[in-house]
């Protein structure tokens, strides 16, 4: 192929990850309610493993199309990372919730750092080992697929979405140990009662609602500038 075609293919391989991320994130809310936080996270491993397999076997099959498809599936999995902070926050006790939520960002930055190190030519970034580098993204998904079934479902999800109070108590005991956890259950019940009287807005309704205009401005500003604050470097 010509140099222009190679540039076009490479640009598509790089950018299609974001398209997959858009598809994954747009369905994250529905899947987390439909299947629960835990099952939704388990399902998100399927596109990750599929993408890793396609990219890892692309050279053997002589197909750059497999790399494009693999990047798309990896993007879908990346878009579903919204499950992680929700699940982590809901299973953690109140006094540790802030700390646990921050770890998601820390480990996301750590994953990027490890990927950049593995991508060095002296390691897996060589001409002979790059398929292994691209397939390595399936390893964390495989670990999660094996270990996550041993974790309980989110207690707030069990109580608020399923109405399973006994299942909620069992999950809390499994997560936080034996003890008096009635105060936490009461907090979840209060939140459930509050949500009954709260209208769930669509994205378009949220943008049009004047009452949330300044909060929306603040969130957009923070999200747009977070990459400039050095958190990845930290």
UniProtKB/TrEMBL annotation:
Q: Does the keyword Transmembrane apply?
A: yes
GO annotations of cellular component type: plasma membrane
Instruction: Quote the Pfam families the UniProt record gives.
Output: Sugar_tr
InterPro entries (alphabetical):
GLUT, MFS_dom, MFS_sugar_transport-like, MFS_trans_sf
* Signal peptide span: none
Membrane topology note: Multi-pass membrane protein
Cite the Major facilitator superfamily (MFS) profile domain residue spans from the record.
1-234
What Gene Ontology terms for biological process does this UniProt record contain? Answer: D-glucose import; dehydroascorbic acid transport
Which top-rank group of organisms is this from? Eukaryota
Could you tell me the keywords of this UniProt record? Membrane, Transmembrane, Transmembrane helix
Q: What is its main location?
A: membrane
**Compartments where located:** Membrane
Q: Where are the transmembrane segments?
A: 12-33, 40-60, 66-87, 99-118, 130-151
Under the GO molecular function aspect, what terms does this record hold? D-glucose transmembrane transporter activity
PANTHER family given for it? MAJOR FACILITATOR SUPERFAMILY (MFS) PROFILE DOMAIN-CONTAINING PROTEIN (PTHR23503:SF54), SOLUTE CARRIER FAMILY 2 (PTHR23503)
Please state what the protein is called. Answer: GTR5 protein
């Amino acid at each position: 192929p010509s140099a222009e075609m190679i540039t076009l293919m490479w640009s598509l391989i790089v950018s299609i990850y974001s398209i997959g991320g858009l598809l994954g994130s747009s369905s994250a809310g529905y899947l987390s309610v439909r299947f629960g936080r835990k099952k939704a996270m388990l399902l998100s491993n399927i596109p990750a493993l599929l993408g890793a397999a396609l990219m890892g076997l692309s050279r053997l099959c002589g197909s750059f199309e497999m790399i494009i498809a693999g990047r798309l599936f990896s993007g879908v999995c990346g878009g579903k990372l919204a499950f992680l902070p929700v699940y982590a926050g809901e299973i953690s006790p109140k006094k540790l919730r802030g700390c646990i939520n921050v770890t998601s960002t820390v480990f996301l930055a750590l994953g990027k750092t490890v990927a950049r190190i593995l991508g060095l030519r002296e390691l897996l970034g060589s001409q002979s080992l790059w398929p292994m580098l691209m397939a390595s993204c399936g390893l964390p998904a495989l670990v999660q697929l094996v270990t996550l079934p041993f974790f309980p479902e989110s207690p707030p999800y069990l109580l608020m979405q399923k109405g399973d109070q006994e299942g909620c108590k069992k999950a809390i005991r499994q997560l936080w140990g034996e003890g008096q956890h009635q105060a936490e259950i009461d907090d979840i019940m209060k939140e459930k009662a509050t949500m009954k009287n709260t209208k769930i807005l669509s994205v378009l309704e949220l943008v049009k609602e004047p009452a949330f205009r300044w909060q929306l401005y603040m969130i957009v500003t923070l999200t747009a500038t977070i990459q400039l604050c050095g958190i990845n470097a930290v």
